[in-house]
């Protein structure tokens, strides 16, 4: 009983104004992270300006855990570009290289075929049933640069969500109990 | 102010900033390199030139590629992805690019090479437009760094022509 009384006392001792300040600063951190993310989306013209490489299909160039910086411009898609695309019905975007391009004259519409550098065959097996080509609207961006290893944080947090909860819980606890 | 938590946080932030700065400088050093690559492709024979059952033309050929791409390598280069594409125009498509062969070069010494090969990937048109078609063979390369910005460029070689009749 005395222990519960102590806990209640320590919670009451946190001054109300200080608590509000800390909540606001936490809110500011979250909002500025969101602003940076949305700003990056505008600048690069792509829905997700940064992706994590999840499979080994582009080794030895891109290994699992690398992050890729994407950029999407109105320039036509050409052979050799590394593109990130979504297949209808699949959630995870795929990062592979364009090996064939067929472009229509008037509309500029394009049909491309992709292949992972480390795969033996092209990506027709990955496309949706009956789909032979990718069109421009499937492509989310072109890879323009990359950083090694940084993506492992995201992979760990996705595959072992318990770590995500522990981190957020610890952060929340730190914010509440710090006296400054 | 001097607790373990604050010190660890300051150290971590500093380390990450320095690392990011080093990656940026490494990538920037790639722009100081001015490469002088050379390449030459010779089509040795057209092995097979037929119309497929679905109506599209298909070509199989053997070619000789010799190239010197050593000047593309810098200390920040992880690999150079090189591929040979046939490029041509038809009445249906304003541009067709078909990759015939590709290779991953990991070491600078391997970048001076001479190979003979048939096309790794099938050269299939969308339609039946390839008889007597003039086409370019373009050697593209993609320099993938250890960290930072990737560079791509190409050498266009013109003057190739497919036969007038199937064989």
Automatic annotation (TrEMBL), chain A:
InterPro entries: LexA/Signal_pep-like_sf, Peptidase_S24_S26A/B/C, Peptidase_S26, Peptidase_S26B. GO terms for biological process: signal peptide processing. Its EC number is 3.4.21.89. Coiled coil: none annotated. It is found in: Endoplasmic reticulum membrane. The chain crosses the membrane at residues 19-37, 139-156, 162-178. It is an enzyme of class 3 (hydrolase). Keywords: Hydrolase, Membrane, Protease, Signal-anchor, Transmembrane, Transmembrane helix. The keyword Protease applies. GO terms for molecular function: serine-type endopeptidase activity; signal peptidase activity. Residues 37-106 form the Peptidase S24/S26A/S26B/S26C domain. The keyword Aminoacyl-tRNA synthetase does not apply. One of its GO terms (cellular component) is signal peptidase complex. SUPFAM superfamilies: LexA/Signal peptidase (SSF51306). PANTHER family: SIGNAL PEPTIDASE COMPLEX CATALYTIC SUBUNIT SEC11. Belongs to the peptidase S26B family. This is Signal peptidase complex catalytic subunit SEC11. It comes from Daucus carota subsp. sativus (Carrot).
From TrEMBL, chain B:
It is a single-pass type II membrane protein. One of its GO terms (cellular component) is signal peptidase complex. Residues 1-26 form the signal peptide. One of its GO terms (biological process) is signal peptide processing. InterPro entries: SPC3 (IPR007653). Keywords: Endoplasmic reticulum, Membrane, Signal, Signal-anchor, Transmembrane, Transmembrane helix. It is found in: Endoplasmic reticulum membrane. Its main location: endoplasmic reticulum. It comes from the Eukaryota. Belongs to the SPCS3 family. Essential component of the signal peptidase complex (SPC) which catalyzes the cleavage of N-terminal signal sequences from nascent proteins as they are translocated into the lumen of the endoplasmic reticulum. Essential for the SPC catalytic activity, possibly by stabilizing and positioning the active center of the complex close to the lumenal surface. This is Signal peptidase complex subunit 3. It comes from Daucus carota subsp. sativus. The lineage of its organism: Eukaryota, Viridiplantae, Streptophyta, Embryophyta, Tracheophyta.
